[in-house]
What does this fold into?
Amino acid sequence: MEEILEITLRSIIVSLSATLLSATWSIPITLFLSRQKTRTANIIMSFFNSLVGIPTVIVGLFLYMILSSSGPLGFLRILYTPHAIIIGQSLLITPWIVSLSYEVFVKARNTYWELALALGADYFSANMVMLRETLPDLLVILLIAFSRAVGELGVALLVGGNIRGYTRVLTTTIALAVSKGEFEFALALGAMLVFVLFMIALTIRLIKAYKE
Amino acid sequence: MILLKDVWYLYGEKPAIKEINLTLKDDITYIIGPNGSGKTTLLKVSSLIFRPTRGEVLYNGENPWRDKKKLLKLRKKVVYVHEKPILLRGRVIDNVAFPLVLRGYTPSDAKDRAREILREIGLESIENKRRRELSAGQAQLVSLCRALILDAEYIFLDEPTNMLDIENREKIIELIGKKKAKKIIATHDLALPLQLTGRILLIKDGKLWGEITLDEYRSMFLNIH
It folds into this structure.
């Protein structure tokens, strides 16, 4: 039981870090794109939309090649560390955050941002009003992205290496347990993963209910 | 005085308004036209929310889009009320007080002033309600109160009596009439220009089609009814 809790806690910390890291670039990128009405912005958004369904192993493979000792970022020596999983998951969920928050920002720009200007706000205040009004939606989007990160396998396996007590997370442990025929252990881990996802879904519902 | 010189506004490649030459200096100016004729865009361009794609909008002879500081300063003197009320999260009182907070009032002073105007309209009973608890008409009233709380020089109203019942319509018309600001009103409420008289402009397909006198308007109105 202790091992399950330790792995669960690691999974949550790694995926939460990845979500917050991804938010630091995804949200400013989306804010910028939502302001643009150019064809280039549309093409960039189409690119992000198409990356939403990218297989996690592709992201893992791409990152492995970059972070391996012969890769361009091999000198960082972070392959098979939790940092590598965090970076990989943050890249994996970037298209999710950008695609989902784009619609929110476009709508907010046509409503709250415009309203703030119409009532005499400067651009900074108008942006603050827009962010304040979209905060519940953004939190929901970040939770969706977190659930995507915590449930992925390809990145964690390829760049994390599934090292016991170090980079082993829920999904990689389930895969290992199944390969070893330890189905009870795999089911217990699976139940824990479903519980985490259920808690996320519950939080999303609560945010939506109380966002007024 | 607001002067529009050959103003165009395009959505993509489609002009929403075109070749607009207009002076806004009367106490009340009505913009009347069918749906999709460009009334809202004309109001948003005139009230400095949208930058014209072509042409100039001059406030007292100056183009505020050329100087960001002047633009921001002018925006404090201009207020635009959306056709569909947009309310912020929070209570009614917070919404009505919001423009005053933007202008540096303390939250408690802004709320005191907001309470006054809500009392004037008879909305004091809903001051603690949230937007999801309001009817469409109440939301419209709150949105109008939020704009009318300001001592703006120009008030742009997009369908202000839309969604209001007769009683609330009368209250709002009274409040609008009391305001010293120059009012520019886009409306489908054909009876409104007969109650609050002003200059009447007609718009169609994004172009101004001209101006009619109150007498011409009255006979047109009687013919319709």
Observations:
- Chain B touches chain A at residues 12, 47-49, 72, 75-82, 86, 88-89, 98-99, 102-103, 130-132, 146-147, 150 (CB under 8 Å).
- The first strand of chain B starts at residue 2 and ends at 11.
- The two ends of chain B are 35 Å apart (CA to CA).
- Residues 2-86+152-224 of chain B form a domain with the Rossmann fold fold (CATH 3.40.50.300).
